[in-house]
Amino acid sequence: MTDRLEPAPRDDLFAPPEPGTLSRPAPQPQPVPPAHPYAAGPGLVTPVPAVGQQAGTDRPATPEPSAGHSTTEPPGVGDREPAARPPARRPRGGGAALVVAALVAGLVGGVVGDRVSDRVDPDRPSDAALPVSGTQGDGAPAAPSRPAGSFADIAAGVLPSVVSLEVRREEGVSTGSGFVLRADGYILTNNHVVAGAATRGDITVAFADGSEHPAELVGATADYDLAVVRVEARDLTPLVLGDSDEVVVGDAVLAVGAPLGLESTVTAGIVSALHRPVQAGEAAQTAFIDAIQTDAAINPGNSGGPLLNAAGEVVGINSAIAQPPGSMSATGSIGLGFAIPANQARHTAEQLIETGRATYPVIGVLLDSTYRGEGVQVATEAQQGQAPVTPGGPADQAGIRPGDVILAIDGRPVSMSDELIVAIRARQPGDAVTLRVRTGEEERDVRVVLQEQASQ
């Protein structure tokens, strides 16, 4: 059946939310050979200015003197006769004294320099040698260590399992991040990182040790913005997918990836909010994410990399960043990054590995994006041949009718179409949800069993 969760098709449905704009931090475009001029396409962002030539940071040239500007002294000063200088005095025997003093100073300097050289000569033992940081008592280098659970300790454990991906097409090259899912070569990333390879293009995976492997696309879904690729490698170290339902606001997190193409970059922050309804991407490939919000710095190129908790477990997949109003592309972190919860990623990745495709849950209604009022309204009329309520679908069986207003899902109020869609897609097909529905002046709770819909 067709996707019945989408709001009624309208031009303004996919307009960026105000006051900020949500955008994917996604593949970092690279310079394109002259023979293949760059053409922005799906998954590509505006190229980042070269290092040292970033927009708005060029130093102004030294200003030329303006017309009529005088470099002479002020009037009345330069016209004066210079004051007469007193005749120079000839030293009385001073010339010889200065020469002798210079010779003495040179001799003393040479002696002192020789003594200092003796002291720092590495081949000579010194009684004044002091302990150096990073050495043991006998002077041997000490192995660096960090407390268990520290950011440095977590980073050391996960970096070998975090990769950067390069997708090369005729239009150009884009990069992103990912991490090892299974020891036999399966790697998880964002769909928009590898979207260009779905029809044509080569994927290369680079590991932290510098090794590179060609990869094949196993499966992808634009609805959840997730993809799985595989390399011919064995004995890889997978990262552990944690329980994202246990994440709370204020938890410390690390974001790992390749922002701006800089591999093995680690940034730290906290979980700043949960259940953010994020709609990222173009209208044709929109992902609805029940996102974890973090202030850990996420930039273009971080897409697909892991968001880790204090135990080194993956609790999210970094996927989108917010931009100030008026920004049309991802320019960098402003402290508002969004990650796909790990529980959703686990379920979707398992489907992609098994079948190459994913599914998502629906209730079988069209939503009216023009409605202004409390809750979310079911469309009153058919749109492009689709009925407002799918006959025989979950909502129809629960007694929901065109024009009804959905006020809450499982006790959580909803006021925008995106909020309801995201809340439903955070569940699984076959799950039951309770919707608070208003028909006219009457309100009631209805139980709806979610139906499965094939993903794009």
What labels describe this entry?
6 helices; six-stranded antiparallel β-barrel; Pdz3 Domain; disordered N terminus; Peptidase S1 and S6 chymotrypsin/Hap; protease; alpha+beta; 456 residues; 28% strand; Thrombin, subunit H; single chain; 14% helix
List the helices and strands and how they pair.
Elements: E1 21-23, H1 94-120, H2 151-158, E2 162-169, E3 172-180, E4 186-189, H3 191-194, E5 202-206, E6 212-221, E7 226-231, E8 252-257, E9 265-280, E10 287-294, E11 306-308, E12 314-323, E13 337-341, H4 342-355, E14 359-362, E15 376-377, H5 394-397, E16 405-409, E17 412-413, H6 417-425, E18 432-439, E19 442-449, E20 451-454
Structure write-up:
GO terms for molecular function: serine-type endopeptidase activity. Residues 26-36 have a biased composition (Pro residues). Belongs to the peptidase S1C family. Residues 364-441 form the PDZ domain. This protein has 456 residues and is an alpha+beta fold. Among the domains are: 14-23 and 240-340, Trypsin-like serine proteases (Thrombin, subunit H), CATH 2.40.10.10; 359-454, Pdz3 Domain. Helix content is 14%, strand content 28%. It has a six-stranded antiparallel β-barrel with strand order 8-9-10-13-12-11. Strand 8 and strand 9 (265-280) form a beta hairpin.
At a glance:
InterPro entries: Chloro_Bact_Ser_Proteases, PDZ, PDZ_sf, Peptidase_S1_PA, Peptidase_S1C. Keywords: Hydrolase, Protease, Serine protease. This protein has 456 residues and is of the alpha+beta class.
